[in-house]
Prior knowledge:
Blueprint: H1 15-20, E1 28-33, H2 42-54, E2 59-64, H3 72-82, E3 89-91, H4 100-105, E4 109-112, H5 119-122, H6 127-134, E5 138-141, H7 145-148, E6 155-156, H8 160-173, H9 181-188, H10 192-210
Parallel strand pairs: 1-2, 1-4, 2-3, 4-5, 5-6
Helix pairs in contact: 2-8
Amino acid sequence: MVYQNIFLLNQYDGRLLREKFGYGEEDLVVGYIGSIEYWLDMLTLIKALSRAYRQGINVRFLLIGGRLQTAYSEKVMSWIKHYEIENIVNYVGFVEYEKAPYYIAAMDLGVIPFDVRNPTAYYAAPNKLWEYLSQGVNVASTPIPESLAYKHLIDIVWSEEDYLTAMRNAGRKTGEEKDYRKIRRYIEVRTWNKSAERFKEIISNLVIHER
């Protein structure tokens, strides 16, 4: 289970950042925020973005994050160049965590492109699932267990075709009135404060039973 900081319960206006990056109302902004490392499968996503661009979808890719341990981020940039989508990519690098919601709010589709063949990714419980949902962003995730548990809230993607479908679906939803009440019920019980309260309760019960 993933827990968020309390400020993510607020909704933010992404229009200023969309203007900053030159995104128009017709642009479909696909975004990723987080470490760019070996537990991701960015190649499938990049191929899908390239296909979407060539099919005439007004897609843009907002890439927020950077390397932690390996040269995987350099591979990602080389794939972006190889598939000729440099002109639709804005690579920001890491941002302060408190500013993350502003960037997420500028997205139409947030992606969680974890490599399910990698144990580090497969057993992860990514914060970004709830960070994206907190801002009403459509979410496309590879089938890691945490995402499958909430597949009724997001799109599960296995392939380039699935990413393309998620992009088209997000494009149709862009600008529509959304009802966040169901999603917020999930988010509100996944704050760090709620997590701390739960740990305190568990520890207290263990201490009582040990006496």
